[in-house]
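testing teh design pipeline on a random one, pls ignore if ur not involved
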C-alpha cells in the first residue's frame, strides 16, 4: 500500500517558522492531529501556528524555539519531543559554515 504525505498524524518538523518548512506545515495541516514545529524565531513560529490552525482548528501545534546548531538547544528540543509517538520527522532546518572544511567548527567536532 502506498503511504501518502498526509497519512502521518503526529509530526515533528524543523525549520517550520518560514519558507519551505512553513509550507510543509501548511500542507500537513488538513490531516495532522499533532504538529511540532521547531525554529529559531518564536514570532514566526507563532505565525505558522496561527496559519496551520486556520486551516485545521483541531490540530494541536507545539512551537519549539531553538537553534539546532546549538547543542543545548538540540538537547532541550529533543527532551520536549522524545516521549511523543512520532509518525514522521522532517529535518528541514539548515546550518552552515563558510570557508575551508578543515578550518570549520564542524571538522573539529569529535
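output:
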Amino acid at each position: 500500500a502506498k503511504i501518502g504525505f498526509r497519512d502521518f498524524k503526529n509530526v515533528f518538523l524543523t525549520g517550520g517558522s518560514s519558507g519551505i518548512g512553513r509550507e510543509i506545515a501548511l500542507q500537513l495541516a488538513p490531516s495532522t492531529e499533532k504538529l511540532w514545529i521547531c525554529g529559531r524565531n518564536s514570532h514566526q513560529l507563532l505565525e505558522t501556528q496561527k496559519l496551520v490552525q486556520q486551516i485545521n482548528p483541531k490540530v494541536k501545534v507545539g512551537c519549539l524555539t531553538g537553534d539546532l546548531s546549538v547543542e543545548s538547544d538540540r538537547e532541550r528540543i529533543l527532551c520536549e519531543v522524545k516521549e511523543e509517538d512520532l509518525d514522521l520527522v522532517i529535518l528541514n532546518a539548515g546550518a552552515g559554515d563558510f570557508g575551508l572544511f578543515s578550518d570549520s567548527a564542524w571538522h573539529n567536532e569529535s
